[in-house]
Amino acid sequence: MPQLLSPRNLVKLVHEYRDRVYIRKDVILKLSEYGELNQSKLMSYCGLNNVKHKGIIDDMVEKDLIVRFEEPWGNKTIIKYKVSEKGRAIFQEILEPYEALFPRGEAEQKK
Questions:
Q1: In the Cβ-directed half-sphere of 78, how many Cα atoms lie within 13 Å?
Q2: DSSP per residue over 20-69, as a string?
Q3: Second-level CATH architecture of 20-102
């Protein structure tokens, strides 16, 4: 069996671990790109699981990196998010330089 098709490599192709720093950067980047997103679109566009990663989103709201607001839609309420000014500043001053210093996948390349 060729090395590329080994079960170990297939797992790596399907599931890739992302540090919380990069998840936060991706969330701010997507919200900057789209302006505002509802909760399910935000999770989907960022490749996040609602159950597993909701805590990260809640933490970002708590720290005022993103803003959570509710919008009535018929008899339902839709939860939406957008980037705060503080989130925009932290993205430019910290997260972008961090990724420039420590690009994603660098640890994988060293193995």
A1: 13
A2: HHHHHHHHHHHHHHHSEEEHHHHHHHTT--HHHHHHHHHHHHHTTSEEEE
A3: Orthogonal Bundle (1.10)
8 A C-beta contact, residue 48 and residue 23: yes
pLDDT in tens, 32-84: 999 999 999 999 999 999 999 999 999 999 999 999 999 999 999 999 999 99
Question: What value, to the nearest 5°, has the Cα angle with vertex 70 and ends 66 and 75?
Answer: 160
Domain ranges in the chain are: 20-102
Contact 25, 91 (CB under 8 A): yes
Among positive and negative, which fits the CA dihedral 28, 30, 33, 39? negative
